[in-house]
Design goal:
The protein is an all-alpha fold. The chain is built from 14 helices and two strands. Helix 4 packs parallel to helix 8, helix 4 runs antiparallel to helix 11 and helix 11 packs antiparallel against helix 14. It starts with a helix and ends in an 11-residue tail after the last helix.
């Protein structure tokens, strides 16, 4: 085989080498993305509980979800609230930290590692349990409140405060966005800030007139990625609510509801239909972001 390869021309050897290098990605993409999605789309039009044969039901799963399922509307509402609160918080924290560590410092490399660590472990089961214990009825926060004479706050007994804990956990995972912002900040020429200072612009004016416009493509990229990621959040909601979406479905995010239908009720067809509706919703919101980007994202030549 090696001899046959050596007999090929240089161009064909490069072509074969290229295919060999990308083949792991192509195989993984087909096996773990395309094939599961195809099977999911097939099952979405069937009734399937893993114990009895698959039964074709047409659009019944989708009709039931859209017109008869109150929990679908609840989970979608909870997820939208989560996305609206978590994404801006995460981007704001990421940009603020990126600007802080962008300043010249001998320890800037260490700071980047320290601030990125929460993103590596932020969505894990262990951190979610730790988060639940911190904000629990007898957790650290209530211990501090009682120590200073204040009444405890029962975060996980009210839907809004329970969801707020999920949002705070999401804001804690800002590392990946922070690194992207940091790369963008380093590409802003200092001459722009120097010229602004000569014209008498203060730091706040420089931030809104230089930093934000130049970073707008980076902000747009992070906004799209974090919006998609937030719609798929699952682990923190599952751990904090013990898989129930409590209290009163206040933490029943969409991915958790899909899990309940698939592995709690064994309604694989119904769960697959829910998943495809989620894909359509995320696709529409992403398209909306791209359409509106022409009004606030600046290109290199200064045009929107």
């Amino acid at each position: 085989m090696l001899k046959s390869f050596k007999k090929l021309s240089t161009a064909k050897q490069d072509l074969v080498s290229g295919y060999l290098f990308i083949s792991p990605f192509i195989i993984g993409f087909l096996m773990f993305i395309i094939v599961p999605m195809t099977i999911s789309l097939f099952i979405a039009f069937h009734k399937y509980d893993m114990l009895t044969p698959v039964k074709f039901v047409g659009w019944d799963n989708f009709k039931q979800i859209l017109f008869s399922d109150d929990k679908f509307r609840t989970s979608l509402s909870v997820t939208l609230k989560y996305v609206v609160m978590a994404v801006p918080l995460r981007l704001a924290v990421a940009l603020a930290v990126a600007m802080l560590i962008n300043r010249p410092s001998k320890l800037s490399g260490l700071y980047r590692v320290l601030f990125y660590i929460p993103s590596v472990i932020g969505g894990s089961v262990a951190v979610s349990i730790m988060w639940r214990n911190i904000f629990g009825d007898t957790g650290l926060i209530n211990g501090v409140l009682e120590a200073i004479g204040l009444d405890p706050i029962y975060f996980f007994k009210q839907p809004f405060t329970a969801l707020l804990i999920l949002v705070l956990l999401a804001g804690w995972q800002f590392g990946s966005s922070m690194l992207v912002f940091l790369g963008g900040l380093k590409n802003i020429p200092n001459e722009l800030y120097e010229a602004a200072e000569v014209d008498g612009a203060g730091k706040l004016r420089q931030f809104f007139s230089i930093t934000l416009p130049v970073l707008s493509p980076i902000i747009f990229f992070n906004l799209v990625m974090q919006t998609i990621s937030s719609f798929l959040t699952f682990t923190p909601a599952y751990i904090i609510s013990n898989g129930t979406g409590s209290p009163r479905n206040g933490t029943l995010v969409y991915a958790l509801y899909i899990y309940q239908q698939a592995f709690g009720e064994f309604k694989m067809g119904y769960a697959s239909a829910l998943a495809w509706i989620l894909i359509l919703i995320v696709g529409l919101i992403t398209l909306l972001l791209f359409v509106t980007s022409k009004y606030w994202v600046f290109s290199e030549n200064g045009e929107k």
